[in-house]
Amino acid sequence: MYNYIVSNRAPTVTLPPATTSIGAKPAPFMASFSSKGPNNVEPNILKPDITAPGLNILAAWTEAFSPLKYNIISGTSMSCPHVSAVAALLKAIHPNWSSAAIRSAIMTTAKQTNNLGKPITDALLNPATPFEYGSGHIQPSRAADPGLVYDACYNDYLLFLCGSIRKSLDPSFPCPTVAPPPSALNYPSLSIANLRGTMTVTRNVTNVGAATSSYSVTINEPSGFSVRISPTRLNFNAVGQTLSFGITVQAQSTARTNAFVFGSYTWSDGIHQVRSPIALSAA
User: Fold this and answer.
1) What is the CATH code for 22-151+186-282?
2) Which residue intervals define the domain Peptidase S8/S53 in the entry (predicted)?
């Protein structure tokens, strides 16, 4: 380049138009800077919930720091707006849904595979876990029609706090003498830390699909644990109907101690796949 410049009186350079590279593979993958679990505040709630695009995102930018009105940014501050926008769209489609129902729809319809059809990996192409991607990568269109949702109300969260921090933050809601364990919160995932023996928790699902529908469950058991769900079939006859099921988890002799292993359970009516990740560790 230097020789070209010094040997020409009027050196020129040609810049071709910018192009967008699409179809990169594998995608998505988990960025190295992405926040990871387990949940240090309450390990009996699986975190993160979901993953969304957050690497090299074209975003609006203040002119106070640049002559441009946009920038390329990476981070949770970029993935969060994607999820927030999906939540807003779901609220517009389903105005009667609670924030818990919206979160459930986003989580239970997420995908765990990349565009190669293989499990999502980290930036080094090692298999990722729910402590990296949560329920999976967000799928907005599927979230609009999840089939079932795990709903929760104000009192459910107060009861959760009773079991988690042993106190109520609302004077009008006294904690029961024996509070349920934090894992009992009606969450679209299941996490049980330091399990000794056997634990059973209850989950409630609300039908937001066809009025008459029947769901059966399949279980991918975490290594070293037995997971049983009862009943194994849920029969709905109305939109808005809520049914309950129990999840019984037992640590086997082969369970690793002080280390989480992962699995999942999925309710399906042949159309919807309502999937919940599982994270378990033995004491």
Assistant:
1) 2.60.40.2310
2) 26-136
